[in-house]
Amino acid sequence: MDYVSALVPPVVMAALFIAVVRVIVKTQGGAAKTKEDAAVDAALAHADGVRQASAGPDA
């Protein structure tokens, strides 16, 4: 029975890893992709605006 207790943790970790990868793959794209892309674009635009404002008009 020692071999069962030795194999259970790796099997459980492998199953959880596969589940995480499947969730990541399934959530790529779809309806949420447009919203996520818009949020990233807004954050980048805001960061660019802050960077330009801190540089001042002489830059």
Features of this protein?
2 helices; 59 residues
Describe the structure.
By secondary structure, the protein is mostly helical. The protein is built from two helices and no strands. The protein has helices at residues 2-26, 31-55. The chain is elongated. 0% of the residues are buried.
Helices and strands in order:
Layout: H1 2-26, H2 31-55
Biggest beta sheet attributes: none
Binned, the helix content reads over 70%
Give the low-pLDDT segments.
none
Q: What shape does the CA trace take?
A: elongated
Count of DSSP helices?
A: 2
N-to-C order of helices and strands: HH
Radius of gyration: 23 Å
* Cα-to-Cα separation, first versus last residue: 72 Å
Our estimate of the beta-strand percent is under 5%
Query: What class, by secondary structure content?
Result: mainly alpha
* Strand segment tally: 0
Average pLDDT for all residues: 86
Quick description:
By secondary structure, this protein is mostly helical. It has helices at residues 2-26, 31-55. The longest helix has 25 residues, at 2-26.
